Amino acid sequence: MKLAFSTLGVPGLPVADVLRLATAHGYHGIELRAHPEEPVHSGLSPTERADVAAEFKAAGVEILGLGGYAKVAAPCDDEIVITEVRALLELARDLGAPYVRVFPGADAEQSGEEADAAAARRLGTAAEYAADLGVRILLETHDSHRTGADMMRILGLVGHRQVGALWDVMHTWLGGEQPAETFAALSPHLGYVQVKDIASPDDTTPLALGAGILPLTDCVEVLSRHGWDGWLCWEYEKRWYPEATPLPELLGSGREHLARLLNDSA
Hints:
Elements: E1 2-6, H1 15-25, E2 29-33, H2 46-59, E3 62-71, H3 78-95, E4 99-103, H4 112-133, E5 136-140, H5 148-158, E6 163-168, H6 169-174, H7 179-186, E7 190-195, H8 216-225, E8 231-234, H9 251-265
Parallel strand pairs: 1-2, 1-8, 2-3, 3-4, 4-5, 5-6, 6-7, 7-8
């Protein structure tokens, strides 16, 4: 498996500095948070996009994916969501990123059937555009659909190879699902896996990998046992927890922890 980290852990840091951190600590890729407050977002010009792609190529680091914020199950007009997803897909194409991340984002007032149908309809439409661009859309286990079982209610309706799943290990665990159950549900659709650690269900402040209670060992063991050879991406949510330890101080030990898990599960 290859290792990456998300720029959510180093909010606003210039691309050149992110790449220096990646190469210094032995990470193979970066998940770029695609948001207007970050250096990389859909408002970049063609020249700016080419410059970012060139920086990554020169550093020998891959862009794993773009973390977008489209909510595909949200109660709004379809075109609003599809337009946002298309812009993200075009940015990924221009940067050479294989994946874009979207959220479910259903409203509490929607019925489950309404939310699932809306998400599947929009993803199915966007999937055709994604196929033309050579990019895959990944629906993250998050918010209204936090487990593998929740994901399958949508992905089963979509049935398109350009739409898959992003497994966030915190959300599936908070949803009461064991790693083996999540993998069984998502394995045919799995794009990559986001790892992290927290102190408790009531305190999701990011911690160093291995310092909390999330079942990272079990997750890696399940993936290894089934021969899955994709990406593990450390999503350290510093952006939402300013009091958390700065990610650069933890990157070295975090990579060592993941390497030990991979070695022990081999």
